[in-house]
Every structure is written in C-alpha cells, then in structure tokens.
Fold this protein.
Amino acid sequence: MAVRPYWKGYLKLSLVTCPVQMMPATSESEKVRFHTLNRETQNRVVSHYVDSVTGKEVKDEDEVKGYQRGENDYIMLEDEELENVALESTKTIDISTFTPRDSVEWIWLDTPYYLSPNDPVGQEAFSVIRDAMEAQDMVGISRLVISRRERAVMLEPRGKGIVLWTLRYGDEVRDEDTYFAGIDEDETADSDMMPLVQQLIKKQTQHWNPKMVIDPVQDRLLDIIADKKKAMKKPAKAKPSASSKPAPSNVINIMDALKKSVAAESRSSK
Amino acid sequence: MVAPRANWKGFIKFGEVACPVALYTAASSSERIAFNTLNRKTGNRVKREFVDSETGDPVERDEQVKGYEIENGQYVILEPDEVAAAVPDSDKTLKIDAFIPCNEIDDVYFDKPYYLAPDKMGTDAFVLLRDGMKTAKVAAIAHTVLFRRVRTVLIRPHGKGLIATTLNFDYEVRSSEEAFEELPDLKIEGEMLELAEHIIGTKKGSFDASTFDDRYEAAVAELVKAKIEGRSLPKKKTPPVSKQSDLLQALRESAGIGGKAASKPAAANANKSAVRKKAARPAATRAKQSAAPTRRAG
C-alpha cells in the first residue's frame, strides 16, 4: 500500500491551513499484466530516449522540459522553475465556495483522487474541514493545477479522508439538448405501465456490490494463457469458445413484455 | 441542425422489454499545454526508441507482441487477434442486470459519460424506463461490449434522457477504506466544529463551470517570458501551517470572532499537541498577524 503521493501541497480554509497529499483513486493497471516482447527473439522490449539529432541515448537526468517558442526553438524549463509559476493553485487548495453535494451533477465529475493529511501536525485541521463539510452535507469547490491544467475541483468527505474530484470545464460537457432533441418534452410514462415497471424495478433492485464491476475478459485471458502453457508442454488442439448471442427480442407490445418480465421475476424469486 | 453522430447503436433491455438506443459522447477533454522533452546537453529534442533488451536492436511496432510471464523468464505470447478473441461478440444490447439505489452508488468507479437517447421512432419504452427509475430513485447496471471492450455501464435519468457512464473495473479502483485506513480516527466536535460550520455558511455558493478557466498556460507563458528577459519569478512561499494549538484561534479569527483571548479550550488543546519542529512555529505567528477579519480575495 506504499503508493507514492501523486501530489503534495496544502489544504486551506480561510486561516486554517494543513499539509496534504493526494493519490489517484483509479489506476490504469490491468489484472493480467503483459510485457512487450520482440516476436523474433522473444526477449523483452525496453524503451529509451535518444537525441533526435545525434541519435545517442539520453539519460533520465539529462531530460528536461522544453517550451516551444518557434520552429526548433525551445526554452528549457526545469521542474523547480515551473514550481514558481505565479498561481497559488499549484500548491494550495484554497476552498473558496461550499455548495450542497446534490448541486454538482455527476456529469461534471472527471477524475477522483484521495486526499489525506501529509503530516500529523495537520490531522486535526484536516478533520475539522472534513467534519464540518460532512455535518453541513456540503462539498467544497476550489482550484488546483494538476497535470498541466488548472482545474475546478470538488472536495467531498469520505470516511476518514476526502475525495477530491477534478471537475470538467464548461465547454467540455456537450449540450444535452442536441442529443435529447428527439424526446418530446411532455412525454411521460404511460400510467398503466408505470406500476408494472415499478414492480419490475423493485424486484431487480440490489445493493451496490463491487462484483458488478468484474472484468470477464481478464479471466478469459488467464484461461487462454493457461491453455497455451499446457500446449507448450504437449501439443493440444485449440478450442474456440463459442459465445451465444441472444438477439434482443423484438418487442411490439411493451405491456405484454412487462407482464412477462414481472412474472418471470416472481418465479425466480419464489 | 445537423444530427450528431452516434458512437454506438444498439438496444437497451430491461426484463423482456427492449428498445433501440444510441450513445453519444457527453464530455470531451480540452487541450493542455504540451511540453517537449529535450536533451539538456544539446538542447535537441529526444525521441523514444524501442529496443530488444538483449541484442539492443531497435524493434519495430509490428514486431512487438504481448507476452505473459509464466515462470523464470518464460513467456506465453499472445497475438493481438488472440487478445481480441477474448472479448465476446457484441450482441449490441445494454442488458440491465440490476437496479441499485442512487444513494449507494460509489462514484469513484465512474469513467466516461455518454448521453443515451432513443434511436429511431418509438420512445415509449425509453420514457417508461426513465420515469420508472426516476420515481424509484435508482440507477441501472448494464453490461455490454462497447468499442471492443466488455464494459459495465451505469445508467440513470438525466433531464429528458438518460446518461450511461462506463465504470472502471474493480482492479482499476483503489478502495477509499484502504486509502484512508492509516488515518487516525479523529472526530471533531464542540466549538471547533461549530466554528468551521459557521465559516462554511459564510462561503455558501454554487458551482458554475463557466466561471472556471485554465490559467496555467498563461502563467507558464509568463514564466517563459521572465526567463527570456533574464528575470526569475519569486519563489513560492510555503503557506503557514496551522498548529494544533493554534487551530481554535485560527478558526475563531476565520469566523470573524477572533481577536480576544484564545482562552481555555486552546490551552486544553495545546497539551495534547505534540511539538513539531520545522516551519510550524513561525508559520503560526504569521497566521495570527494576517488574521484581519477581511477575507483575502482569491
């Protein structure tokens, strides 16, 4: 669980400031981890950086960021210099606004991070901010520079910590009206069918469970690998797994289909 | 108006009811400032090369294959078509497996949102599902093959339509319990909590995405300009960190009722605060000096 913090800085509410750290709540990691190989030699493939002019390998410590000024004209920027960029939001999450949790629609949520105190000295201040938001059922809104962009962020108490969401910019969310134009403003559900669909929903309602987000493909890959491993010892025939394709029933009468659905659910749940 | 192009077309199915729908990208990512990586010694750009770890020879893209290490440097090679074959054929159907109460949804799993709208005529079933979920305050969990990957999708009512959000898989999400497990169980009560709640009350507002713009690129341009002119921008100061013993006072001053006596509670607090060295002391005094009742404009 020793994950290196993705970002370190300060959380600030008015005159209260505490050191915090942040790490991504999600990762790109795959369950089945592959390496890149050279097909011919079956050796691992590694990447390195070479100078585009001399072709010579460039060591990590010789790599530096370049800001393009013109064609083949770059200004070198060291990380320490970039730290001094004139924005407080590179280092400090200064909570400017609080708003009810429900008022920030899900569509604005971009990427989640976990925010926690970075030093015991700040634990109490961190907890004060967290617990006050919790007590008021509010989230905090602030700004933060993260991966080369200054983002609006939302802070939401979660257990002993805080979830920090980057929020999308206004022009990143497309106008829903364009897509929902075909739906009649006044059209509402048929009142005869509503009780049936409510029944169906009730019967199929479950508690949230992480099992709902299991990846079947990763398990299949492991099966394929296991088969190949066996085949490496003794040649065996490959067996393609047939996947059944249930064609969507072409429903003409929604009412009948709903009744059938509810009946089926009743049977299955006795 | 030009009809937007769908990213996916198929059916949504709940129980025995199916209706044709389409998915449209709801959010895109805007550009961010791009840096190039240079070789500090020559000022030239660097480029990435893939080489064989043993022979050192460059390996072209199409000579690179995926290998799974089974034991002691032995690999099982999987060709792209074999990996692709692990993904089941698409039946073009968002099949609803379950509904879950909206308040139980763990949003940390959210990946990308898509507008889900009825395709072609017949919105009856679509509207029925939408209003049914709205009334029951639930969202739907569905599975389907999207863009050649098996995805779990969370579907919920949004205005006149539905939004389908792809969810990250279990192994892609760190649990918050785990992430926060080492934090102490500190519950704040009494005056400190009241003060903080009061401060929140003074900063009530709403989130308006249109008021936020990205100032980073302009700030970097400014930094570059300074560098070209031989100036260096002032080093950023470390913000004064509130010491535990000064926390109550800082809260009082933030709430605008500071000034007088950090009386008993502060003292009571002081003895439980472990003494930390470093910037804590000068920082705290600085916090007091700047404790004017006015708020600094952000």
User: Anything to note?
Assistant: The longest strand of chain B covers residues 149-158. Helices of chain B lie at 80-85, 124-136, 176-180, 190-202, 216-228, 244-254, 264-270, 280-289. Chain B is about 25% helix and 30% strand. Chain B touches chain A through 179 residues (CB under 8 Å).
